[in-house]
Amino acid sequence: MKYLIGLDLGTSSCKAIAIDLNGNIVAEASESYELKIRGKYIEQKPEDWWASALNCLSRIVEHLRTNIVAIGISSQANTLLTVDKNGIPLMNAISWLDQRSEEELNEIIRTLGYEEIHDSTGMIPNAGFTAPKVLWLKRRQGKIFSRVFKLLFSPQSYIVFKLTGRFIVDRTLASFSMLYNIREGCWWSDLIELLELNEDILPDVVDSHQEVGELKEDVMRKLGLEHNVSVIAGAHDQCCAALGAGLTDTSMVIDSTGTASAIIGMVEELPPKIPRDLLCYHYVIPDSWTILGTISTSGALIDWFLKLSGLTRSYENIERLAEKVDVGSNGVMVLPYFSGSFRADIPWRSRGTIVGLTLSHGVQHIYRAIMESLAFECRYFLDLIRSINPLINKVVLVGGGTKSRLWTEIKANVYNLRILKPAIVDTAPLGAAIIAGVGTKVFRDYSSAVSSVIRFQKEIVPKDEHVAVYEDLYKKYLILSSRLGDLLSSL
User: Fold this and answer.
1) Is 110 helix (H, G, I), strand (E, B) or coil?
2) pTM of full prediction above 0.90
3) What is the mean pLDDT of residues 221-232?
4) Average pLDDT in the 173-193 region?
5) 3-236 in CATH: which number?
């Protein structure tokens, strides 16, 4: 039996799984690493990524020993790393969560224009992206920048270098940097010139399924491997998660719900005009693009409420109580902008609020209202994606949010679409393993790989009587959020 490894380098941990060609997980490992936080400065040690990746891979290899064909990599994006010609980091990596480069971002927007940036790169300008970080680095850390041999955009590039000796970035992560022109399929010359960058300082752009090399001999020894293994580039973790949930055509969207949420679809032609609220960048499948809307606080909001209410250990009890609450939470509604908003009609610095409370309400009403309002916010982005692609007829739900039956049923009724749950809900490392299989010709293509590997659990179907009620509530939610958004941002 042949095995494929998916290695997922997230914000707080590294996970690795090995699957057989039928999609069964035969080995897995995980290891956490730290974020170093000082106000707006949020960093990670790239050496921690490597140590965690090496440990996870070692545990997988120890379990399997032989017949490992390839490793594919799933990675967080926009975590900027500078290395010298030997691949040695010159400073800590600047996390995608870091907001130190707001001043540089504003300069880029003033020079190139918000609309031009969004239309050319598909990105909603934000200090978390790679481009403003590069400008900050040049301006504030000139001595370090003068020693830079390569700018790397994510753990993917660093781990691939450590495994193979090559500096690459796959097309999904390159086009999620705000440095890449998604319409021309190359680095965006206007921004490269503004930053006064030589393209030699950037990694080579490759397809997600490209084989970038085999393991170096010293890595093979550390892992205890007697045969060599191919290393496949892999992709952005959201793209890997979408692929691992089965996204290979335009009939479905992925609802990825964890600490934050993302609604992810794919298109086979770039829209002439990308809605201001959506991100658009290359997908793992050639000649297709990811289109994505994000909510910065999702599962984190539920966790916050449970902790605030002292209900962390009573999750199942509050879930049962909330199931008994009427659709609409007896008039309670939540605006879930507890760490800002990505909607174009609401200021980024808006705040969250709970409205409609009376003395007759309990924690179960607020709990359900949070779930309903998060579903409404996801519906907002889903409708934008449907305006570009009206062929969508189902949603695949992945991430920690799948644990709640109530939330899943609420989403089915709010979206008025059937919802599927994959058997494996942590789909990012699975997607990376699938990419490894496609890159080594173990699978003919992505569609055949998904057919072989992915299985779904029970389907959740919307109920007509609830759909009608939620449709009315959703319209009220849009009015409420648009009217209060500006006010809340001024507090």
Assistant:
1) helix
2) yes
3) 95
4) 98
5) 3.30.420.40
Across 209-278, where does the E strand assignment appear? 211-214, 230-236, 252-257, 261-267
The tokens describing 361, both together, are 């309400």
CATH class of 247-421+461-491: alpha beta
Residues facing 15 on adjacent strands: 8, 30
Under 8 Å CB-to-CB from 220, ≥6 apart: which residues? 228, 229
Tokens standing for residue 377: 């916010």
Structure tokens at 286: 């050639």
Both tokens of 225, joined, read 């491997």
pLDDT value of position 392: 97
Q: How far apart are CA 453 and CA 449, in angstroms?
A: 6
- Count, residues in the chain: 491
**What is d(CA 408, CA 403) in angstroms, rounded to the nearest whole number?**
8
For 112, residues 6+ apart whose C-beta sits below 8 A from its C-beta are 190, 191, 194
C-alpha 451 chain-centroid distance: 23
Phi, psi of 235 (to 5 degrees): -160, 175
Q: For tokens 């309670």, what's the residue?
A: 332
* Contact criterion met (CB below 8 Å) for 9 and 428: no
Which residues does residue 231 pair with via DSSP β-bridges, in sequence order? 71, 213
Residues of the chain with CATH 3.30.420.40: 3-236, 247-421+461-491
**Where does 48-178 show beta strands of DSSP type E?**
68-75, 81-83, 93-94, 150-152, 168-170
